Amino acid sequence: MSRAKTSSPTTRRKKASRKKTAAPRGYRIGIDVGGTFTDLVLMRPDQSIHIDKTATTPEDQSRGVLEGLRRLADFEAISLGELLGQTDRIVHGTTTADNTLIQMNGARTGLITSEGHRDEIELRRGFKENIWDPALPPPTPIARRRERYGVPERLDHRGNVVEPLDETAVRRALRRMKKQEIESLAVVFLFSFLDGTHEKRVREIAREELPEVDISLSHEVLPKAPEFERTSTTLVNAFVAPVIRKYLGNLQRQLAEEGFAQELLMIQSNGGLMTAGWVADRAVNVLGSGPAGGVIAACHTAAAAGVQDFISVDMGGTSYDVCLVRDGQPAVESSWNWHHRYLIGLPMVDVQSVGAGGGSIASVVAGALHVGPESAGAQPGPICYRRGGTRPTVTDANAVLGYLNPDFFYGGELSLDIDAARKAIDTQIRKPLGLSSVEEAALGIFRLVNANMANAIQRVSASRGVDARSLPLVAFGGNGALHAGMQARELGIRKVMVPKSAPTFSALGLLLTDPKIIELRSCITPVDQVRSRDLQKLFRDIEKTAKAALKAAGFTTSKARFERIAHICYPGQTFDMKVPIRTDGPMDHEALQLLIDDFHALHEKVHTYASRDQNPILRAVGIEASAPSEAPPRNRLRGSRKPARPRGKRRTFLDGRWVPTAIYDGEALRAQQSVQGPAIIEERLTTVVVYPGQVARLDAHGIYHIE
């Protein structure tokens, strides 16, 4: 990984005054929009990087993106037009799709489905998030029942027409939708993944009856069984697609007007990149994609330190994201992905999120302290930010406890109001709880949010049969380095790794990932009955489709990788498992037997048992196509044998008392230098807290190892 070069405002002004000419061509920019901050990474032609943050603008995220780009241009002492004109690649991650589902403010959506199946989305496979809460209300419907229509048509399980499509019923439904002012249409027919003719015909009719309506066909969104997963995924796509298309169109237009001549790239939920134009037609692919960039960067960081198995934790302003990484790669879940109470049946990097961030609001409810999941967000933000916040947050508690430097926050651009934070915690937390001091109340907030995050780590690791104590943490996000050491202590984890680029790690990960497409085709048959010739033809067709999509997006396919995959289950199982196919040659008897053996082994590894006497069922096959791009070289920090020297001391509240704590300038530290806790290392956009009994060592790759 490249060294993160950061600077104070004074240094930035000096650099700006020295630069008189435009920078050389070849910039690359990663932009990750979070709930509180928009993170940016500028990678220069010499592979050095500059990181920055700006407040997210929830009402129009493109405003925050453009403001962040202007800050990058100012740092380089060139205009925004010059910067964008000299930029080869912009990779963007956005929470627009997630925010649309959270706020349920997407397009007004209608559904046309096979007669008798319009309530599929309500049944939800009987799944309920909290089985112990009988009063838990159902999710807000994307398409209300009166906006869902069943029409006569039917295919059998082999794709043969049992009942022709009733076009009169389709037109009748569409005309009712017109009166209901439907803005987006989802079409989901039984077994349409085997033959999409009926769904395509509905689209043709809809373009006649409702020419302005956005249309999502299930055999294009998710061309595989089961039915509920396909229905849910297609409805979510229809709900968010108009919002995503409008946002990306607006952002691309503004970038073009400012001088960016390339295609904007987006990260998908599977961890790969594709163009904004491709994503706009498959909007559900960006749902939950935000945390994927951070996990990718964590894999690169850990690899530099020789670590293959670890837990990545990302604590930003709004959420806390946890991912278990084994053998250097995150798990990509392909079936049971619930996001904001709807199931997404597409491959997604397996990241679990909880509402625990720096902006998480603390409150007292029925005599008990609660922290999160509600967040103060970018506006108004924590009270200490002086932006109008009135409710205490985790950041306010950290400021009161002395962990944050009130005069050097956000690179010295923001002065924290500690007194206002103390007053709010006193009146809203201390007094209702009957505590003796503000520090005790702030410490309660700190401990509770740590407990929530530690529980998330335990849940993720235990669900995979892994003892969290045996793995290191890779911590990032603006707040991750402050809390990770305490979480490690509570969980018994012996090592924490914090990269210097942690505050904008997800944005950095966007520059480290490759374009990627996953194409799937349904193929339901017992594996021992698969016809090699038919399967080989199917793989050729899928590879041709994937290659055409990469070319259409402007990526070269000369070095593209096409990896075959199969989705397999035991007879009677509802969910299948993705199994890599280890040959690109003919799928003969030997290749199929190897695939079966691999499935049994994988099932045993994940679920602790295998039924080798059963003949597995092949549910779908596909190809993961990627176009590798050149990875940036890892610059190394200069080392020093001299002891690290603190620049001063500050009182911090540790283990229930005020302790004089050494403060170190992160920019002044060199590789191989160590810091003994208790200590605080202040980077420009984050704070690393080394708790008593811990030692932090900086390595040549710019990674703090806290042990």
Provide a brief overview of the structure.
This protein has 707 residues and is of the alpha+beta class. The chain has five domains: 9-100 and 246-286, ATPase, nucleotide binding domain (Nucleotidyltransferase, domain 5, 2-Layer Sandwich), CATH 3.30.420; 107-226, Rossmann fold (3-Layer(aba) Sandwich); 291-357 and 448-510, Nucleotidyltransferase, domain 5 (2-Layer Sandwich); 360-447, no CATH class; 516-626, Dna Ligase, domain 1, CATH 3.30.1490. Helix 4 (96-103) crosses helix 9 (227-258), helix 6 (167-179) packs across helix 7 and helix 12 (394-400) packs across helix 14 (438-463).
What would you say this structure looks like, in words?
The structure is a single chain. With 707 residues, the protein is α+β, with helices and mostly antiparallel strands. The protein folds into 5 domains: 9-100 and 246-286, ATPase, nucleotide binding domain (Nucleotidyltransferase, domain 5, 2-Layer Sandwich); 107-226, Rossmann fold (3-Layer(aba) Sandwich), CATH 3.40.50; 291-357 and 448-510, 2-Layer Sandwich (Nucleotidyltransferase, domain 5); 360-447, no CATH class; 516-626, Dna Ligase, domain 1. The protein is built from 18 helices and 35 strands. Strands 13, 14, 15, 20, 23, 24, 31, 34 and 35 form a 9-stranded mixed beta sheet that branches. Helix 13 packs across helix 14. It is globular and about 80 Å long.
